[in-house]
From TrEMBL:
GO terms for molecular function: carbohydrate binding; DNA binding. Pfam families: CggR_N, Sugar-bind. Residues 90-337 form the Sugar-binding domain. It comes from Virgibacillus necropolis. This is Uncharacterized protein. The keyword DNA-binding applies.
Length: 339
């Protein structure tokens, strides 16, 4: 495939540019529909004149519908988008990044989307779409899906759609999280994901972190025991990876812990565990929910993290962490490979 792409780049460079342009417009409409022409121009980073011309082309071929509410992609358009996806990854070099990242991080499967989520919110939604596509083919009826908090996971929730081959699924928060911004809390995110997939959900109303006394007391509560059992027997887990000090500050950790993390050279954080550059655990937050050792018994572990600023944190985590699928963006992938 790559040799064919290289040949096409030499013989039909103009044709490939047109393909990339139309693919980008279809992809953006699919992500943000219904969308107006001006908004499409801004998000696709094309002039309104170019967008107007391409929209007319796509509408004539019934790949999009245009109404007073904006543009929507048709089933024909979705099919074209799906068939072109692999080819476009080869053209743009993303397939090569995915192969290099699999070897570098020792992960079974990697998906890389274009852009840098550090400064492009759209990229987080594209990573979310990749999560949704994966779940559509890997989730079965009555399965439980545990989800952590964070802005990336909130973006994933925003693009969730009903499962086509699974009913009666249950979303649960992977851990407590009261104390963070409400839109980034795992409870809020699982409720949104359940609503968008016509599934059910459970809440976990506990602060994060907990004192030892509170931890032991809450573990005796029947309602906490019930949700904890569901969380630790989950079939799928979706989680993010964060920069250690950024996450500690977001959780309003005290100065003593911040100094300890700095002293121990903490680089990354996931599930309340802090890791150094070698992947060793240097601190663990006392919290109710999924524990690092639980990942070994989960059928599907999906890690999602992007942005060049997270490259060191991602590398640190994967020095010991398990994931069946890692979804990231182009900027993070480049920084990890060449860092």
């Amino acid at each position: 495939m790559q040799s064919l792409v290289d040949l096409q780049k030499k013989i039909f460079p103009d044709l490939l540019e047109v393909m990339k342009q139309r693919y980008a417009i279809l992809h953006t409409i699919n992500l943000f529909q219904p969308i107006g022409r001006r908004s499409l121009s801004d998000r696709a980073k094309m002039t309104e004149r170019t967008v107007r011309s391409e929209v007319e082309f796509l509408q004539k071929r019934q790949m999009i519908d245009v109404s007073g509410k904006g543009m929507r992609i048709t089933e024909e358009g979705k099919g074209i988008l799906s068939e072109l996806a692999v080819f476009m990854k080869d053209i743009t070099g993303l397939s090569g990044l995915e192969t290099q990242l699999k070897d570098k991080l020792n992960v079974e499967q990697v998906i890389v989307v274009r852009g840098n989520s550090d400064n492009q919110d759209q990229v987080k939604l594209e990573m979310g779409k990749a999560v949704v596509n994966h779940l559509q083919s890997h989730v079965s009826t009555k399965q439980t899906i545990a989800v952590t908090g964070g802005t990336t996971m909130a973006a994933v929730a925003h693009v969730m759609s009903p499962f086509e081959k699974a009913d009666d699924c249950l979303f649960v928060p992977a851990r407590g999280g009261i104390g963070e911004r409400v839109e980034s809390q795992a409870n809020t995110i699982v409720a949104e994901m359940a609503k968008r997939t016509n599934s059910d959900y459970r809440m976990l109303y506990v602060p994060d972190p907990l004192s030892e006394l509170s931890y032991q007391t809450m573990l005796k509560e029947p309602s906490i025991q019930e949700i904890t059992k569901l969380i630790r027997s989950t079939d799928v887990i979706l989680h993010g990876i964060g920069d250690a000090l950024t996450m500690a500050n977001r959780r309003k950790s005290n100065d003593e812990l911040i100094r300890q993390l700095e002293k121990e050279h903490a680089v990354s954080e996931a599930f309340g565990y802090y890791f150094n550059s070698s992947g060793d655990v240097v601190h663990k937050v006392r919290t109710i929910g999924i524990q690092l050792e639980d990942l070994m018994s989960v059928n599907q572990v999906v890690a999602i993290a992007g942005g060049s600023s997270k490259a060191k944190a991602i590398t640190s985590y994967f020095n010991q962490g398990k994931a069946d699928l890692f979804i990231t963006d182009e900027a993070a992938a480049e920084a990890i490979i060449h860092g």
